[in-house]
Amino acid sequence: MPRRTILMFAGACIAVAAALAVTTMVVVNGRPDPSSSVVTSTGQPDVGGPFRLVSQNGQAVDQTLLDGKWSLVFFGFTYCPDYCPTTLGVLEATRQALGARADNLQIVFITVDPARDTPQALKDYLSSDGFPEGVIGLTGTPEQVRAAADAYRAVYQKVGEGEAYTMNHSLTVYLMGPDGKFRSALAHDLGPERSARLIAQAMDRG
User: Fold this and answer.
1) Pick from 58, 81, 57, 61: which is nearest to 73 by CA?
2) Which pairing describes strands 105-111 and 70-76: parallel, antiparallel, or unpaired?
3) Cα–Cα nearest to 115, from 74, 151, 86, 144
4) Which residues contact 108 (CB under 8 A, 6 or more apart)?
5) Each residue of 172-181: pLDDT tens digit?
6) Which of 99, 138, 144, 186 has the fewest CB atoms below 10 angstroms from its CB?
7) Strand partners for 55
8) 197 pLDDT exceeds 80?
9) Which pLDDT score is estimated for 27?
10) How confident is the model at residue 164, as a pLDDT?
């Protein structure tokens, strides 16, 4: 094969590879991966913010619910087959690992499925055996839930139709300080001991 033809062919291959790389980055960055296990800690106020929802007791609440306590906030739904119940169990183990420091820590579960997760449905679900005591369940109108998720940069999407539909959603647990501001993100697979250490370090920093 002539040298010029070889060079042209090599150049074309490089161009194709570059195009594929760009396409991959657009797809990955443009469609957040709910299974990401990255742990981040920015301290920036761009995670969290105002919301208006309803608790499992039927009470209207807003972001002041977070004031005065450390909070672990995560998004899920009562029909979730694995991640949500597993996360609740891990958070209970995390709370136990924190010892007395857990007295100032609350767990907040915000549904991404307001069509099914009424206050009563949340109350029944969160009172199940094996789940942590005192978890605060929040729901609302679809618009209210969407606004809360957007404030936390959480993503979710309905999958399927009819009664058997499910929800894809972010797996991150958000650690919020007693001032209601974001401190750190806990990956879903971090584990109780590592999560407890991260929370304790955040508490030490204030």
Assistant:
1) 61
2) parallel
3) 144
4) 65, 66, 71, 72, 73, 74, 135, 136, 138
5) 999 999 999 9
6) 99
7) 138
8) yes
9) 23
10) 87
